[in-house]
Amino acid sequence: MSRYQLIIFDFDGTLAITHPAIISCAIKTFQTFNVKPPTEEQIQSVIGVPLAEAFTIFHPAIATEEIPQWIETYRLFYQTEGLLKINLFSGVNQVIHAASSEGLNLVIVSVKHTKFLNLALKELKINSYFDLVIGDDGQTPIKPDASVFYSAIQPIYPDIQSNEVLVVGDSHVDLLFAKNAGLDVCWAAYGYGDRAKCLALNPTFVVNDISELISIIQKE
Fold first, then answer.
1. Residues 135, 115: Cα–Cα separation, whole Å
2. Which residues does residue 16 pair with via DSSP β-bridges, in sequence order?
3. pTM greater than 0.85 (yes/no)
């Protein structure tokens, strides 16, 4: 029997290859507002960071009141074009099937808009594996705020102890979320996270391929 009873997955860069969609939609958003877009490498470096923060990083002069319009524009591009450019990492189906077969509860926590997160999961045909999907709905706290665990997840699984929960994510935001909530965390080193930042946070486990997660969740 697995030592873990609940696995909290990130989405972008952990389960799904989303950088082609994110890069394309981000560039088009900057172009819409006649602002020079960042490079593809720069955009990829902030995947997993909330949109408002990402736009501020690359356009420090943006006014606070303008950010919602930028976010809305980005999400419009994402809904109409971005969803078609998302694919799963090789091995994801096997991992979530193995976890489900072990009787583990599977949850997704992402900074992606809840609507698009659910659409992507359905399009990728993995939505049925997850008991709970938490995205950015403008009301629920977002990572790395630990209150998303305490207020939105823990009450649904009251019998599961903190040491029976594993967070799996590729960015420093995921690792900080786990650390803030006092949870074990597996860094998905194959994703988009900054290696130095992530290793500095001392993840419990590191995997270079998502298939390596199977041995972790099956270990007693």
1. 8
2. 12, 88
3. yes
